[in-house]
């Protein structure tokens, strides 16, 4: 069993740390929020009053924070006095550039490191069914895999440091674009007098099929589990989709990739968020197309 320090016990980190503890690992957690620490304690995670207390003796340190600047600040503290052979794993969704900086810092301190962002949301975190997209060395991946398996179902080694984050933002750029395409098609169908169910029955079995229609249809009825049947309660909140689309645009600019539909999707989700919809499920963007038409 492994001694793990888990930093960032929020909506995702809390249940992930709980699953590691449930699997029999010794998990010491730290979060700036006292409430999150208390909640984690109730799930078998040992709470630390300060981060250094969690780090002492840890063989593996996992971070689950909101953004790149937080990860760099926390990793900067971690690598000051790492225990020998410490493996650092960042599961946050952050920009590829910060992820690569974090890897460089760890390497300088003699630590193995991985970027391992996740897909699957809070439900997947609670049920230990997350997908992990992992960037870093084979050696780091081999050490991390059994731990990631306690928190997830699908674990993919994507390549060198930073490629986990690259996979995450490319996947979510596809998702943001495809959801907009599906929403536009359903709004057009409404104007043409075509029922939701008829469009679903055709497109979900034809060349229009994709996750946004087959599993997460943005109108009520065809897929009973989709947020459209539940007043667009997330699910995956629109502000998180916007964050990921902005990360993909930053990355595109940095490497000179041409992503015009990604740029349009970021702009549309930006408008949707400005209208006060950031906390709703991202598929609720269909309502904006109804207004616009
Ligand atoms: P969250 O805000 O609920 O959790 C982040 C936690 O980090 C908070 O509890 C905060 O107090 C803590 N924190 C911040 N700075 C800290 C520090 N210096 N030391 C210790 N703790 C600190 O966010 P979340 O929803 O858990 O998301 C975490 C990451 O996972 C994000 O990058 C997000 O994009 C990604 N993600 C989220 C979801 C989702 O559905 N929520 C799905 C996939 C990926």
From TrEMBL:
<dbReference type="Pfam" id="PF14833">
    <property type="entry name" value="NAD_binding_11"/>
</dbReference>
<feature type="domain" description="6-phosphogluconate dehydrogenase NADP-binding">
    <location>
        <begin position="3"/>
        <end position="159"/>
    </location>
</feature>
<dbReference type="InterPro" id="IPR002204">
    <property type="entry name" value="3-OH-isobutyrate_DH-rel_CS"/>
</dbReference>
<keyword id="KW-0101">Branched-chain amino acid catabolism</keyword>
<comment type="pathway">
    <text>Amino-acid degradation; L-valine degradation.</text>
</comment>
<feature type="active site">
    <location>
        <position position="168"/>
    </location>
</feature>
<dbReference type="Pfam" id="PF03446">
    <property type="entry name" value="NAD_binding_2"/>
</dbReference>
<dbReference type="GO" id="GO:0008442">
    <property type="term" value="F:3-hydroxyisobutyrate dehydrogenase activity"/>
</dbReference>
<dbReference type="InterPro" id="IPR013328">
    <property type="entry name" value="6PGD_dom2"/>
</dbReference>
<feature type="domain" description="3-hydroxyisobutyrate dehydrogenase-like NAD-binding">
    <location>
        <begin position="162"/>
        <end position="288"/>
    </location>
</feature>
<dbReference type="InterPro" id="IPR006115">
    <property type="entry name" value="6PGDH_NADP-bd"/>
</dbReference>
<dbReference type="InterPro" id="IPR011548">
    <property type="entry name" value="HIBADH"/>
</dbReference>
<dbReference type="InterPro" id="IPR029154">
    <property type="entry name" value="HIBADH-like_NADP-bd"/>
</dbReference>
<keyword id="KW-0520">NAD</keyword>
<dbReference type="GO" id="GO:0006574">
    <property type="term" value="P:L-valine catabolic process"/>
</dbReference>
<dbReference type="InterPro" id="IPR015815">
    <property type="entry name" value="HIBADH-related"/>
</dbReference>
<keyword id="KW-0560">Oxidoreductase</keyword>
<dbReference type="GO" id="GO:0051287">
    <property type="term" value="F:NAD binding"/>
</dbReference>
<comment type="similarity">
    <text>Belongs to the HIBADH-related family.</text>
</comment>
<protein>
    <recommendedName>
        <fullName>3-hydroxyisobutyrate dehydrogenase</fullName>
        <ecNumber>1.1.1.31</ecNumber>
    </recommendedName>
</protein>
<dbReference type="InterPro" id="IPR036291">
    <property type="entry name" value="NAD(P)-bd_dom_sf"/>
</dbReference>
<dbReference type="GO" id="GO:0050661">
    <property type="term" value="F:NADP binding"/>
</dbReference>
<dbReference type="InterPro" id="IPR008927">
    <property type="entry name" value="6-PGluconate_DH-like_C_sf"/>
</dbReference>
